[in-house]
Amino acid sequence: MHVYILRRLILIIPVLLGLTVIVFLIMSLIPGDPALAILGSYATPENVAKLRADLGLDKSMVEQYWIWLTNMVQGDFGRSYSLNRPVLDEILERFGATLILAGTSLVLCTIFGLLTGVVSAVRQYGWADKTLTFAVLIGISIPSFWLGLLLMMFFAVELRWLPVSGMYAIYGGGDLPDLIRHLILPSVTLAVVATGIIARLTRSNMLEVLRQDFIRTARAKGLDENRVIYRHAFKAALVNVIPVIGVQAGFVLGGAVYIETVFQWPGIGRMLVNAISTRDILLVQGGVVLVAGSYVLFNLFADVIQHLLDPRVKA
């Protein structure tokens, strides 16, 4: 196991390096001059030239990338000009809110996705299977941002059961119950698509496992049906579902960008939207690298769990 984890950690290094190259190139290709965006009405040719020199924008792209990469490796992500504070401080402050939203959504989609897939497989072609399959297809097909607006309009505007947006109430609140009330709508919205994907894969893997000889043997021995399904069949099917859950963890984290915008959640996604609109390049680069790096780590964690469940799985 230690060798397996060490091998995967080594393989992550070129992935993260390639990730930084892609992020830097994409930001470099965005039209417009950051110096002009920063200076605004004070953008005289002299001021623009001086600011470009201060920001290192007068250097070649290779030099800019190397300076940014070496500083980032040392923990210096630069300074956000729009917020006038270190990029890393802003990212870490926002990342906590994003982890709360994405973590809750991941727990919801994992629990309901696995449960739905198992029930559909066990009740194959029954009314439960048809109903759940139809619901899953609807959930996968609906755009998340549109679903969020529908839920907001129904539960927040019409019924007034839940708050419209934000992480805490503007006046009062600030405690755990207040956080949970604000978390329900965005977390459910973010979890719907991932729930459908996990449910469909769980169903197909459960159906395949239930046809295996060891399941027939377990039933022939007179084992309780629930024990056969949940202790034997589900465990075997879970080996192939775990990697997809890891992928969905990255999807949920990335999907938080537009869900946070819809619900005005103060996380990384909302920060990135604001940073892009102000052309705060260092803030955008730092945020994207952190989100993408977290996606890579989620997949590593999923692979390790899969290897624990089935040591035959190779890197």
Automatic annotation (TrEMBL):
CDD domains in the cross-refs: TM_PBP2 (cd06261)
Which GO biological-process labels does this protein carry?
Answer: transmembrane transport
Q: Which GO terms describe its cellular component?
A: plasma membrane
Query: How does this protein lie in the membrane?
Result: Multi-pass membrane protein
Listed Gene3D superfamilies: MetI-like (1.10.3720.10)
Q: Which intervals hold domain ABC transmembrane type-1?
A: 95-301
Q: Where is it mainly found? A: membrane
Residues making up the signal peptide according to the UniProt record? none
- Subcellular location(s) per record: Cell membrane
Its transmembrane ranges are 9-30, 95-122, 134-159, 179-201, 237-261, 281-302
Q: Which UniProt keywords apply?
A: Cell membrane, Membrane, Transmembrane, Transmembrane helix, Transport
Q: Which family does it belong to?
A: Belongs to the binding-protein-dependent transport system permease family.
UniProt-listed PANTHER family: DIPEPTIDE TRANSPORT SYSTEM PERMEASE PROTEIN DPPB-RELATED
Q: What is this protein called?
A: Glutathione ABC transporter permease GsiC
